[in-house]
Amino acid sequence: MIDRYSIAFYLVLSCAVGVLDASAGDADPRYRACVALCGKTGCIGERCFPHCKFSSDGVPIGPWYMQEPLYLKWKQWDCQSDCCYNCMLDREKERESDGDGPVKYHGKWPFTRVYGIQEPASVAFSALNLAMHFHGWISFLVLLNYKLPLKQNKKAYHEYTCLWHIYGLLSMNSWFWSAVFHSRDVDLTEKLDYSSAVALLGYSLILAILRSFNVKHEAARVMVAAPLLAFITTHILYINFYQLDYGWNMKVCVVMVVAQLLIWAIWAGWIHHPSRWKLWVVVIGGGLAMLLEIYDFPPYLGFFDAHAIWHATTIPLTNLWWSFIRDDAEFQTSYLLKKAK
Predict the structure, then answer these.
(1) What is the mean pLDDT of each run of 10 residues along the chain (341 residues)?
(2) Nearest residue to 169 (alpha-carbon basis) of 204, 117, 219
(3) Which of 24, 32, 107, 126 maximizes the CB count within 10 A of its CB?
(4) Are residues 127 and 67 both part of a single domain?
(5) Whose CA is closest to 85, among 125, 46, 49?
(6) Where does the record place it (predicted)?
(7) Sequence-ordered list of residues with C-beta below 8 angstroms from that of 259, at least 6 positions apart, any chain
């Protein structure tokens, strides 16, 4: 049988997580005391949470309409989450009145929820990135099939068409799970976000190598892609089923990003592509945007932290990137048509 004291203990334990994952806010005695009291009474000050009241066997007390709304329940906001969240807000107000700056709780800055969404700005910017990739992919599809000349077999002259289609799908998948993860950070959404990001970055590196070195033959493409695909697959399996090592995952992602930026930068400087200036802007802008992932700062107005602003900077870069992809398709189609005459 579960009594109120065991529930309170569970809330404190869950919010505190452990010494290894603790942040400055987690160790605050006032914060922990607030969470413990909330677990016992279901209230913080005059604010009470009906879904925090349980019977001795753990069944919620009260009619169904007094329980967690469905639109919040699917996000897994529960008594534990509400206690931690509201205690965090109260403690941050006290810190602000004392002239102290924000601190992290459980590895995250104190964000302000909007309709149950954990990080509203990051969700909005992720959705906009998804929309930009969808627009870019569709415009690329229209360009190849309706504006540029086709071969007699109705296939495009552009030799990287299929690769760019896969890239578009992986990009939209990655930004979709980014929006879901920032909406509610739980173990499943975190792993889906990280896995889809690694898959996109790894494939982007393969694509950068194939395009910059003009690898056309299928056998050569397989030889280039196979070892990288094997590493990416192994890494995704590792972080999902063995250990989600944040430091190691960050190193893998940074190496893949830097490698492809260098490849594109060298290729842009080597060839005389008519749209190479777009590639330069994307490479330099992408490199500068990465600094936001390194230079972390608390969210402005409770919404805009460094990670959210990084999501915002990728929106115009995505538009320019797909513009370059379309220009490259036109450039290669024109080259192949002249060569065929």
Answers:
(1) 39 41 74 84 79 54 48 58 84 86 83 87 96 98 92 86 97 97 90 96 97 94 96 96 91 94 93 92 91 81 89 96 96 84 65
(2) 204
(3) 126
(4) no
(5) 49
(6) Endomembrane system; Golgi apparatus membrane
(7) 205, 208
Determine the pLDDT at residue 2.
42
The answer to the question of residue 111 being in a domain is no
209 sits in the region (left: phi over 0; alpha: psi -120 to 50; else beta) called alpha
**Predicted local confidence at residue 116, as pLDDT:** 79
Q: Is residue 112 part of a domain?
A: no
Q: What is the pLDDT of residue 202?
A: 97
pTM: 0.84
Same domain for 329 and 205, yes or no, is yes
- What's the number of domains the chain is made of? 2
Residue 156, strand partner residues:
150
DSSP symbols for 195-221: HHHHHHHHHHHHHHHHHHTT--SHHHH
Q: Which domain holds residue 207?
A: 120-340
Is residue 161 within 8 Å of 328, Cβ to Cβ? no
Max distance between CA atoms of the chain, in angstroms, equals 84
Q: What is the pLDDT of residue 90?
A: 87
226 and 327 share one domain: yes
192, 193, 198, 201 alpha-carbon torsion, rounded to 10°: 140
Cα–Cα–Cα angle for 331, 170, 244, rounded to 5 degrees: 135
Cβ neighbours around 160 below 10 Å, total: 19
What is the structure's pLDDT at 4? 40
